[in-house]
Design goal:
By secondary structure, the protein is of the alpha/beta class. The protein has a single domain, classed as TIM Barrel (Alpha-Beta Barrel), CATH 3.20.20. The protein has an eight-stranded parallel sheet with strand order 1-2-3-4-5-6-7-8. The C terminus is likely disordered.
Length: 288
């Protein structure tokens, strides 16, 4: 079992990181993808501790749309900044999370788009997968992926909160679709309908922890161990067994990001981990 998207380097886990990781292992998790904010040097440092405690943990790094405004007057620096961040994060295997967020609009939309565009271009040049965050910006997100992806960029729409149309567009792009604890929420019927049409070979499960804890933990700090609840609901929704969904999502993770048991590059090159073929709620008031 794999949590394909979490934020274990977030300060929310500082007090009890070792215990959180131990609970994940006890729940049967074999690995995770930890998302790093390269504009926050503390997260890069904290991921080293994550990797020491959980050697099979991998990471992705990229400029989140919330932070795109920091590059408002220096968009030409985006690619070099991300390249340096990946080179400085051992275990990096993807660019992300990146994308557009028109719900909060913490950065001007035109700046978000340009920063996103530059990162997709960079990922394409390095043959790295991308982890996509899109919120109330689906049309522009898909458009930029088509324009800059060149039909070769691969990746995942993380924490999927869209409808059937967006799911089909993501699949048409060749992307994977990842479902979070939101899929367990009572009013998430539209998301569960989307989960039914995603082929097993494109399906991923995640927690997005510390955010978006699944039912029955909603309102608490989320953690990777609870991805099992996401898998249970996906299995029920798709009329499959939890074992089948666990196996499918693990295979999807390995195909997109590389095997967590391989010895890949830690420099962000296109070898090793880089050579594999948005939330609507929050816990503890954390913005997502």
């Amino acid at each position: 079992m794999i949590d394909s998207h979490c934020h274990l380097a977030d300060d929310a886990f500082v007090p009890d990181l070792a215990e959180v990781i131990e609970r994940a292992k006890s729940a049967g998790l074999t690995g995770t993808l930890c998302i790093l904010d390269p504009t926050n040097p503390d997260e890069v440092v904290r991921f080293k501790q994550v990797a020491e405690l959980w050697p099979s943990a991998r990471c992705a790094t990229g400029i989140h749309p919330h932070h795109a405004g920091k590059f408002r007057d220096k968009v030409d620096d985006v690619e070099r900044f991300v390249a340096d961040a990946i080179a400085g994060s051992a275990g990096s295997c993807a660019v992300g999370e990146i994308g557009l967020d028109y719900h909060y609009d913490f950065a001007p939309r035109e700046v978000q788009q340009e920063v996103f565009r530059r990162q997709v271009r960079f990922a394409r040049s390095r043959d790295l997968p991308v982890v996509i965050h899109t919120r109330e910006a689906d049309e522009d997100t898909v458009r930029i992926l088509r324009e800059e992806g060149g039909g070769t960029v691969r990746g995942v729409f993380h924490c999927f909160t869209g409808d059937l149309s967006l799911a089909r567009q993501a699949l048409d792009l060749g992307f994977y679709v990842s479902f979070s604890g939101i899929v367990t929420f009572r009013r998430a019927d539209e998301i569960r309908e989307a989960a039914k049409i995603v082929p097993a070979e494109r399906l991923l499960a995640e927690t997005d922890s510390p955010y978006l804890a699944p039912i029955p933990h909603r309102g608490k700090r989320n953690e990777p161990a609870w991805v099992s609840r996401v898998i249970d609901v996906l299995a029920e929704t798709r009329q499959e067994t939890p074992e089948d969904v666990t196996a499918a999502t693990s295979r999807s993770f390995a195909k997109l990001f590389g095997s967590i048991f391989s010895s890949g590059s830690s420099s962000g090159s296109s070898s090793g981990f880089g050579s594999g073929t948005a939330g609507a709620d929050s816990a503890k008031g954390l913005v997502r």
